[in-house]
Amino acid sequence: MSKDNQRHVLSALVQNVPGVLAHISGMLASRGYNIDSLAVGETEDKHLSRMTFVVVGDDRVLEQVGKQLEKIVTVVQVLDVSSRDFVERDLLLMKIKAPAGPVRSEIRELVDIFRAKIVDVGLDELMVEISGRENKVQAFIERMRPYGITELARTGRIAMIRSDSELPRTKAASAKVVTV
């Protein structure tokens, strides 16, 4: 990926109140920034949610997104996770055509190789769950295409900075947007 099209993984700690997701996604869309991936969920503090989103662009895009997020009252902290040592995961559920016999056995073998898990078995299809880095999940999708994917759902990326490079968590302790 060129320097102009870097993938930035951002983690926003936000107040857990109605409308925050709409406000942030609307702000990004109105300024022409595309969200490549988005995942939102409650944190260890029931009053806060974590939004993990991926935006693609150069450092100027990242800086502008950060400045816009700083203006939103319900945003507590934003981190450019991708600028640090971090762990990311993507979750996928997929239904694959898998008639009984050798084809089903091939698929089961690939599921094992990718460390995925069969979570539902039908007469002529399997439902598989896989989690991991984006490239692993994408490789699994491509490997399953020849068998016939009948349905697919993905969560989007979630990410956390590794413990040994943890940053302060509160607005009082650090700047809202941290790019290291």
Automatic annotation (TrEMBL):
EC number assigned by the record: 2.2.1.6
Gene Ontology BP terms: isoleucine biosynthetic process; L-valine biosynthetic process
Biological or metabolic pathway of the protein: Amino-acid biosynthesis; L-valine biosynthesis; L-valine from pyruvate: step 1/4; Amino-acid biosynthesis; L-isoleucine biosynthesis; L-isoleucine from 2-oxobutanoate: step 1/4
Record-level Gene Ontology MF annotations: acetolactate synthase activity; acetolactate synthase regulator activity
Pfam families on file: ACT_AHAS_ss (PF22629), ALS_ss_C (PF10369)
One term under GO cellular component: cytosol
Keyword Metal-binding included in the entry's annotation: no
Signal peptide range in chain numbering: none
Keywords of this entry: Amino-acid biosynthesis, Branched-chain amino acid biosynthesis, Transferase
Domain called ACT: residue spans: 9-83
InterPro entries, A to Z: Acetalactate_synth_ssu (IPR004789), Acetolactate_synth/TF_NikR_C (IPR027271), Acetolactate_synth_ssu_C (IPR019455), ACT-like_dom_sf (IPR045865), ACT_dom (IPR002912), AHAS_ACT (IPR039557), AHAS_small-like_ACT (IPR054480)
Family matches, as PROSITE patterns: ACT
Enzymatic reactions: 2 pyruvate + H(+) = (2S)-2-acetolactate + CO2
Cited function: Catalyzes the conversion of 2 pyruvate molecules into acetolactate in the first common step of the biosynthetic pathway of the branched-amino acids such as leucine, isoleucine, and valine.
Subunit note: Dimer of large and small chains.
Family classification: Belongs to the acetolactate synthase small subunit family.
Protein name: Acetolactate synthase small subunit
Naturally occurring in which organism (per UniProt): Novipirellula galeiformis
